Amino acid sequence: MTAMKTPSTATTTPEPPPQREVAITSTALARTTALRSRLTGGVVGLAVLAFLAALWEGYKALGQATGDRLLGIPFPVATDDLSMPHLGTILGALVEPARRGNPTSLGVYLLGETSVTLREAAYGLVAGSLLGLALAIVFLHIPPVSRGLMPWLVASQTIPLVAIAPMIVIWGGKAGLPPWVAVTGIAAYLAFFPVTINALRGLKSPPKVQTEFMRSVGAGRLQFLLWLRMPAALPYLFAGLRLAATASVVGAIVGELSAGTGRGIGRAILTFAYYYSNGPEKLYAAVLVAAVAGIVFVQLLSWIERFALRNRHSR
Amino acid sequence: MPITAGRAGTAARRGLPVLAAAVVILGTWQLAVRLFQVPSFILPAPSEIASALASEFPTILSASNVTVRAVLLGLVLGSVAGILVALVVSRFHKVAGPVLAMAVIVNCAPIVALAPIFNNWFGVTNLASKAGVAAVMVFFPVLVNTARGLLQISPLHLELMESLAAQPRQISLMLRLPNALPYLFNALKLGSTLAVIGVIVTEYFGGPSNALGVYIAYQAALPRFAEAWAGIFVASLLGLTTFGLISLLERLLMPWHESIHSDET
Amino acid sequence: MPESAIISVSGVTKEFNSGTDRSVTALTDIDLSIAEGEFVSLLGPSGCGKSTLLRIMADLTQPTGGSVSLNGKAPGAARRDRDYGMVFQQAGLFDWRNVQRNVELPLQVAGVAKETRRAKATSMLELVRLSEFAHHFPWQLSGGMQQRVAIARALSADPKILFMDEPLGALDEMNRERLQGELLRIWSDTRTTVVFVTHSISEAVFLSSRIVVMSSRPGRIATSIDVDLPYPRSAATRTTPEYFKKVTEVRTALHGTSAAQDAP
C-alpha cells in the first residue's frame, strides 16, 4: 500500500527534487504511515491489556460475591487470594524485598535471574541458528540427505525437551562443563529447527529468472549462494530466527528446571511454585517477568530484522 | 493411469532415504556405544533401550494413556478456541490487524511458565491443568494462522464472487473457509508438537504418578537411563503420531492441495 | 442505435481520486451500444481505460458520471440476476475445487439444486471439450485448459452476456490461436453477446463482429469498425487478403488516435 502510494505523492512536490531526496522523502512518508499504524496498534494493545486486567479482577470480584458459584455451577478456577491474587498485590510484590532480611526487591532479583536466562537463550540462539543454517545449506545441495533426514528432524522436535534435559545436564557434568552450557545446549536444540526450515525455504525462493541469469553469467556454486540465495533467503531467515528466539527462551527456562543451576528465571519459578502458599503473588510476578522478558527478547530481534531489511519494500 | 504408478514410485523414492538415514543413525549409535564402551548413564545403546522398552511396556503404556488424553484434550480445546476467535476477529477488519499483532507478541512469551499456575488452579493431578497449558500453547498459532487464512484471500477470487453477486455468507463458506484450511493445518501440525511439550513440562511441575513426563523424570533421577530413554522414545512417538494423524486428516480434507502432491523437496 | 441493444452505455465518465489534486480521468463521455449476439472487442493501448469500461458495465466499478443499462436493467440488478458471466485475465479457479465443482460455482451461488448443477456443468465441460478432466484439480491443468474451465464457469448459468477481460493475454501464441478458434465455436453454439477486451489487433480482427477502438489520456472511443469477414472463421481466415486489409485498417485507426498523444 505505502509502496504504491509514496511515489505518486513524491511526484506532486512542486519541484522534482533529485533522485536521492525522493527516496528519503518516500521513506520518511512510509515511516509516518508506519508510525501511525503502530500508534493505533499500541492503543489497541493497551485496550486489550486493560480488558484482560478487567477480566481478571471482574472474574475475581464475581467469584467473591457469589461464593465461586453461578446458578449452581462452580467456577473452574477459585477466586480467593491464594488462587488469584489481586493484580495490585502481584505488581506490589515486585517492589517488596524478595527474602526476609535482604533489602533487594523481588523485581531486581527477578531481573537478575532473567538476565542469566536470556544470556543462556542468546548463546543457544546463536549456536542453534548457525547449526540450522548449515543444515539448510547442506540440505539444499544434497537432496537425498534432505529427504532422508527431514522426517527425523521433525521427529526430533516432538521429543519432549524436559525429558532429555536431565540427560544433557548429565553429559555436560561428565564433560566438566558448567550447568549453563547444558542449558544453552537445550536452547540451541529447540532453536535450530525453525531456522533450518525457513532458511531452506528462503534458499529455494529465488525465481527461475534469477537462477537462470546467474547460470548465464557463469556463476559458481559459492557465488550462487552468496550473491543470490543468501540475500534472497534473508527475510525467510529472520522469520525463522524470530521463532527460534521464542523457542530458545522456552528451552533455557525448561533447561534450568532440570539443570539444578540455582540461577535463572526458570529456577525462580520452580522455587516460588514450591513455596506457593507462602506468597502466591511472587509466582505470578515471576511468570509475568518471564513473559515480558521473552517478548522483549524477540522484539530486540525484530528491531535487528527491521534494520537489516530496511531497503526491501516487500510486505 | 500413470499417476498410480508414479505415486508408488514416489513413495519408494521418499521412503528409502528415510529408512536409510534411520539405519545409519541407529547403527552408528549402537556401534559407537559398544566400541567406546560408553557407560549407560551417558548414552545407552539402542539395544538396551529396546529391551528396557520391552520389559517396561505395560507401565509406559498406562503412563502414555494419561498423557495422551491430556495432549488430545489440550489440542482440541486450544484449536477450537483459536478457530472461534479467528472467525470472530476476521469479521472486523479494522481491529483484526492489531489484535493479531498482539497475539503474535504474546506468543513470544514462554507460555510453559504458566505450568505451575495451572497446576495450582486446577489441581496437580487434574487432567485440566495439563490440557490447559497445552491449549494455551496451541491457541495462539491456530488463532493467528486461521485469521490470516480467512483474511488473505486472492483479490481475483473476491472479484469473481462479487461478479456472481454472492452473499457475504456464501463468500465466507465458499471462499474464506477453504482458503483458510491450509493455514489452519500448518498451525495444527505445529500445535501437535507444542501440545506434547506443554503437557510433559506441566507434568514435570507435578502430576499424577502414572503420567509419562513424571515417569521419565523419575527414571532419570533413579538413575535408570535405559528406561528413561524408552519413555522418551514413546513420548516422541506420541508427538509423531499426532503429527501424522493431522497430516492424514489434511490429505483427506484437502485432496486438492498442491504441496501434498508436489515433489520439490 | 439498433432497436435490440442489450448493452447501452451513455455519457459514462470515470475519474479516479476525484475531488483531490491527484485526480485522473480514466474515461470521458463514453457512448456505446451493443446489440444482442454481437461479438464486440474493446481495443486500445494500455491505460486507455478499456478494462475500466468493462468493469463499469459489470458493476465491479462505479462510474463517476453517466449511465449503463444491461439487458434493460441497471448493472447492479443485472449482476444480481446473473445476466452476465465474466472471464478474467487469470483463470482464478478455486484451488480447492475440482474442475466440475469450479464450473458449478455460479449455479451454487445462485442456489440451483445439486443434480441440475451437475448436469449443467457436465454439458458446459463438453462445450469446452474438457469432459475427461472433470475430476482433476486446477494445478493438474495447463494454463490454456484452466482458461477454458474459466469460460465454462462463466457460461454455466446461461448468461445473456459474456464479459472477457484480456482472457487470453497470459497464454502463448499457439495456445492463444487455438483458444480463439474455440471461443468462436462456443460463441456460435451459445449465441451469447460477447464484450472482449484486448490489446492485440489480430486477435480483435479474427474474433469480433465489431471493434471499438479506444484512445488514451483521457480514455474515449476513437472509432468503431465493423469486421465483415464471414463466420465461421478458421485458421484459413487469417491468411486471406480481406483479413490483412482489416488488420491494416484497424492498425491505422489505432495509431491515428495514439500517435499524437503517445509523446510524453
Question: What report would you give on this structure?
Answer:
The complex is a heterotrimer of chains A (315), B (265) and C (264). With 315 residues, chain A is mostly helical. Helix content of chain A is 77%, strand content 1%. Chain A has helices at residues 2-11, 19-66, 87-93, 106-141, 143-158, 161-174, 179-203, 208-216, 221-259, 265-274, 280-308; strands at residues 69-70, 73-74. The radius of gyration of chain A is 25 Å and the shape is globular. Chain B is mainly α and 265 residues long. Chain B has ten helices and no strands. Chain B has helices spanning 2-35, 46-89, 93-106, 115-122, 127-151, 155-163, 168-204, 212-221, 225-253, 258-261. In chain B, helix 2 (46-89) crosses helix 5, helix 2 runs antiparallel to helix 7 (168-204) and helix 7 (168-204) packs parallel to helix 8. Chain C is α/β, with parallel strands linked by helices and 264 residues long. Chain C has a six-stranded mixed sheet, with helices on both faces. The longest helix of chain C is centred in the C-terminal third of the chain and has 22 residues, at 241-262. The model of chain C is unreliable at 259-264 (pLDDT under 50). The chains are: A mainly alpha (315), B mainly alpha (265), C alpha/beta (264). Chains in contact: A-B, B-C.
- Alpha carbon gap, first and last residue of chain A: 9 Å
Compressed to H and E, one letter per element, the order of chain B equals: HHHHHHHHHH
Strand order of the largest sheet of chain A: 1-2
Largest sheet entry of chain A: 2 strands, antiparallel
Mean pLDDT of chain A: 78
| Broad shape of chain A | globular
Query: Which descriptor suits the 3D outline of chain B?
Result: globular
Distance between the termini of chain B: 24 Å
The overall strand count of chain B is: 0
- Uncertain stretches of chain A: 1-27
Instruction: Report the β-strand fraction of chain A as a percent range.
Output: under 5%
Helix content of chain B: over 70%
Query: Radius of gyration of chain B over alpha carbons?
Result: 22 Å
Radius of gyration of chain A: 25 Å
Multimeric state: heterotrimer
